[in-house]
């Protein structure tokens, strides 16, 4: 049986004293998962029911928060099961599926942030052309591409991994991510090259585009009146905060996970748990508190709940 498990399954070796703290791990992460679903869903609900929020900027925010819930769902259910299981194992096929879901949704966030940056650029720098450029069809097209392109790009990576021979069956992490790169008997050049291509196309290029658009926004708003500067600060600051936070997460995933690192096991676990808990919770908090219109409706909803 053990020989069969070694061949068919991968083992997650990133846990620290799981036997001792399994129920504590479970309760903390279960609470975080419920909070992620609840906080993100509340903001999406407010955007859905209020007609004054049916604008491209808020539609993109709703899409980003839905993406966050899906991203968390790709990780948390399996994670919670592992906390209560005797063996933290996963089939290679399901590991490939989890990796596909995880990286598709993670890279979709970058593209959604790029679309949001473009939306703000048009709104602030070309206000008269905004209704023409950001039509309903354009918004739908951006959303479809933001999910479809990462899915297609990540699918190629999954196909490459499906043909790889593994000589090591214990992953350093607690879910299927780049740590699987080190399990190969022989490092595949195709996977290495394609990984760089993926990084450039769906991370670095969108990042450069976002930085370019926000730089243009800052230059134009600085030269404009106080009203334009205020609008730029109110609508762009939340996006920049989310971008900075998400970029730190991407850097951790690439540098610490894929590149060999002497980071202690406990530190690696803490960083991973923060990565999958902190970012999904931060998004709705930033948009709920920093976006004026959403914050107004959120306060009204809380007062209604309190009165009942």
TrEMBL record:
It holds the Pfam family 7tm_4. PROSITE patterns: G_PROTEIN_RECEP_F1_1, G_PROTEIN_RECEP_F1_2. Residues 39-287 form the G-protein coupled receptors family 1 profile domain. It is a multi-pass membrane protein. SUPFAM superfamilies: Family A G protein-coupled receptor-like. Keywords: Cell membrane, Disulfide bond, G-protein coupled receptor, Glycoprotein, Membrane, Olfaction, Receptor, Sensory transduction, Transducer, Transmembrane, Transmembrane helix. GO terms for molecular function: G protein-coupled receptor activity; odorant binding; olfactory receptor activity. It is found in: Cell membrane. The chain crosses the membrane at residues 23-46, 58-77, 89-118, 139-162, 191-215, 236-257, 269-289. Gene3D superfamilies: Rhodopsin 7-helix transmembrane proteins. GO terms for cellular component: plasma membrane. Belongs to the G-protein coupled receptor 1 family. This is Olfactory receptor. It comes from Lates calcarifer.
